[in-house]
Specification:
This protein is α+β, with helices and mostly antiparallel strands. The protein has one domain. It is built from 6 helices and 2 strands; from the N terminus they run ααααααββ. It has a two-stranded antiparallel sheet with strand order 1-2. β1 and β2 form a beta hairpin. The longest helix has about 35 residues.
Length: about 190
């Protein structure tokens, strides 16, 4: 029976510690985002993003935010004025890419074996989930922020004047009624 002991170089240990720190920092940023971005969470509970329909004059375009986050995770949130939220998604995605690079570097330095492959797979999963979540979240943020914008700056009023002509047919009278209807909405 042979027992094999693998030696991990100090450089690989430093990279693993660096990636753990990066993961902790990403989690801390996510927590800070949840705490600091409380207004979005209140708005999200108040407005149903599924009932949203785009109207001209909306400041944020949901499809544009989703496309922006497709190319750079978190950019769609930043476009919709949710800077901290976008930074968390971008940091999470970059952290995942960093884990992939560190895992590949560990794998290249140690040679045979699967020392760094776990980190590569973890990084790929983390960056992919962060990327896909960022796309969907950017669309949702744009919709909710547009609904808030509509309610906040709703200062329109309309006045409609409609003429009408009506006929009444009573047995002894044939009279035409005419007039003007007024409709005011705020």
């Amino acid at each position: 029976m042979m027992i094999e002991i693998k030696h991990i170089s100090s450089n690989s240990k430093c990279k693993i510690l660096f990636m753990k720190k990066l993961l902790v920092i990403s989690a801390a940023l996510l927590l800070i985002n949840v705490i600091c971005d409380a207004q979005y969470w209140l708005n999200m509970d108040h407005y149903d993003y599924r009932s949203y329909r785009y109207q001209s004059g909306d400041p944020y375009h949901p499809a544009g935010a989703g496309i922006a986050s497709f190319f750079i995770p978190g950019l769609g949130q930043m476009i919709c004025s949710e800077w901290a939220r976008g930074a968390v998604f971008l940091t999470g995605w970059l952290g995942g890419i960093g884990m992939v690079i560190a895992g590949m570097s560990i794998q290249a330095n140690t040679g045979e074996g699967a020392d760094g492959m776990g980190l590569v797979y973890l990084g790929l999963g983390f960056s992919t989930v962060s990327w896909i979540w960022s796309i969907g979240d950017a669309v949702r943020v744009a919709r909710v922020n547009n609904m808030v914008f509509r309610d906040k700056y709703k200062n329109s009023a309309s006045l409609q004047l409609k003429p009408y002509i009506g006929f009444q047919n009573y047995p002894a009278q044939d009279e035409a009624f005419y007039g003007l209807s007024v409709s005011i909405s705020f």
